[in-house]
Design a protein that fits this description.
Shape: globular
Helix content: 40-55%
Number of helices: 7
CATH class of the largest domain: Alpha Beta
CATH architecture of the largest domain: 3-Layer(aba) Sandwich
Strand order of the largest sheet: 2-1-3
Number of domains: 2
Radius of gyration: 18 Å
Distance between the termini: 20 Å
Length: 175
């Protein structure tokens, strides 16, 4: 598959930085060293690898978001999301309210609405993203989150290793 893969660059994307940290922690730098020898196209965002698949510019994405691949598949594109048995990086999308929010009660109401079963189900159905809400179910034909072996998030670990990851990654991939 040399020259046929695409991957996001961790120096440009927090999502890719988090995924790269989890891969290094769980699989070691050897994985990325081997991958770097495959002439992998480098892109910036986690949304870019699925776009390169859709355009036919690459056949495999080594990382990126799965929800766009699911959407491409459902639109009839010849793609298939695969989840490694070693584990799939986990990237959560947290929400918060600023302590200095000008309308804190409105912000609390928005947060309450955002995390209802109905709203979370809507996002799951129409964006192919996963929800931690226990009553939300994936659309028919989509994989359940519980069926995917997930790598564990560690925001403090990412922060601690970010500079090392950027430097070593740039050296390995010559970018």
């Amino acid at each position: 598959w040399a020259g046929k893969m695409v991957k996001g660059h961790p120096a440009y994307s927090g999502t890719i930085m988090t995924a790269t940290f989890q891969i290094v922690r769980d699989l070691g730098w050897d994985y990325l060293e081997k991958l770097s020898k495959q002439r992998v196209m480098q892109v910036q965002s986690s949304t870019d690898p699925p776009k390169k698949l859709a355009l036919g510019e690459r056949a495999i994405m080594a990382d990126g978001n799965d929800y766009n691949v699911v959407m491409l598949k459902e639109a009839g594109q010849p793609v298939e999301p695969l989840y490694p048995s070693e584990g799939t990086p986990t990237i959560s999308g947290p929400t918060a309210i600023f302590a200095s929010a000008p309308h804190p009660n409105a912000a609390r109401l928005f947060q309450a609405w955002l995390h209802t079963r109905e709203t979370q189900q809507f996002f799951t159905d129409f964006t192919a993203q996963y929800s931690a809400h226990p009553q939300v179910t994936p659309k028919a034909g989509r994989r359940k989150l519980s069926d995917i072996k997930l790598m564990k998030e560690d925001a403090a670990g990412v922060e601690k290793m970010a500079d090392e990851i950027k430097t070593r990654y740039a050296r390995l991939f010559r970018v």
